[in-house]
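Below is how a single chain appears once it has passed through the pipeline. First comes the sequence as given, then the structure the pipeline wrote out for it. We keep one example in the README because the format questions we get most often are answered faster by looking than by reading.
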Amino acid sequence: MKRLGIVCIIVAVGAGTLLVAGCGTDEAAVRAIVQEELAKDHAASVETMKQLQKFGFGGALEKEWSHSQGVRAGNFIFVSGQQPYDTNLDDKGMPLTDLETGRNFAQQLRTALENVQKVLANYGASTNDVVMLQGFIDEKAGKNAADFGDAAKVIQEFFPNGQQSMTFISVDNLFGPEQLIEVNAIAFKPE
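Resulting structure:
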């Protein structure tokens, strides 16, 4: 994306300089040069997008459900729905500690956002690079009931600059029987 802007500026300045200098640069020739540079930049972007970088914690559910926790495509990082699960796994790929059962909404939200951070860190990114945060909330999961009293404070801990767009949606029945929250994210991190 940066390259495209630089190419356009160089072409525009070059064309402007030639026109001002009285060289009589043909507008069609300038357009052809710009189109050629744009086509090269587009081809480079497509090639970058083909080189997906996938990341997982090595969990059993990743294999069972055939997914990655994060995928980098060019400058974008897509973080899969992060649940309030321990990413420290046993030899079978199962969480060592139950971080969901009996935990309140703020505790589960914190764990889910910590997992988002771990995925982003794998790509050299942080929550400052997140452009979209989306949460799915089951307000009455099992014995739990979502109490949003500390939720804003937890969000501010992880996103102190508040630069991301954000949507939280109420749903019924997330994956775990007492799971109150699942969070996914999209980040933009130029390489």
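The chain has five helices and six strands.

See the next section for the split statistics.
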